[in-house]
Amino acid sequence: MPNHVSEWFGHRVFPFVACTPRTLEDQICGRCPFLSSISRRETKCVKTPRSSGVCTINSDSNGQNQDWIVCPYRVIDTGILLQATRRMYRIPKARELELIPAPELQSLETQARVLKAFADHKSVFVFFTDKLGGEVALPGTEQSPRFNLDTTLVQVLPSGEGVRCGQFAAVEVQTMDFHGSYGAAVRNLSDALRLHRRKFGKSVQDNPEWTSEDVEGPNISNVFKRTFYQTVFKFQLGHHEECAGSTLALPQAVWDSWQPHLGRPSLTHLTDGTYEFPLSSTRTRVQPFRQPAWIYVFDIDSGSKSSPNPVALNMVIRCDAITLSHYALIEPAKHALAKIDSPDGLRATVNRRLRKYWPAFA
Fold it and tell me: Rounded to a whole number, what is the distance in angstroms from the first to the last CA of the chain?
């Protein structure tokens, strides 16, 4: 089945089209509903013209149709960041918290909001991302590489008459790279909006090929290889006393695609509702009071009548750098080596090929 642009400027265009005055307004104005919501001001999509407005791609690469997120801002105002903050900083459910984009602090109104939050015994956090204050870098040294953190959280604490920084935390939202280009599909949608504005929804619904032109499949192996080292590195940050933890947010489609790369582990469901990888002999159980890293697996509720579609949190997985390394480097190799002597294994393949050159090979 072809791959399709499934959400455009935050609203669904495949396999059905969400078409309301609000969805059309976002698409006509080129507005990102997620950045606009979190920044409390109208904000246009920040992507290049060839991919402008593309939030998700629908693909059946995992054997079923799923939405693959291609823009990290798709989930910036969906509760994932809020839940991750509460968990990493161990904020009780009864305690309210404020989560504010760092650039908003230049506003006197926001500064007053922070001070009032302190008076109301709320927890206050600010965050930096690429388009909201800029990514924060972990400086490189002669013995370590430089890394940018996708989203950096910092707790803001009262300090006499002023404020001060508390612990930081890191949140990464894993998007997927796709082969091909979104350019033709974006052009088709833009043309449909221009030429068939009053019948945009029906026109796109009746011509699904418009959302699929030149859109190819996900580059799963490359993304895993590119992401794995950074993820392990950033998970290790959670062991430092200045870091509250690290969270990797994975769309369900990406988590599913990673299963062969992790040895397809059977996760253990814990009494608190979270999950963990089966314990291996290579690591010691991390104490629950000091969990350095988490994996959040989420999905877009494509069946919802709300637009943008809400995000559903499917699993929260306890993790750490050593555990992830074991399941990425040891477990898959163990399963692969177990098939070396099978009829379709490495040894049989080598023998078949050598017999083509020299039939004397048994």
Answer: 42
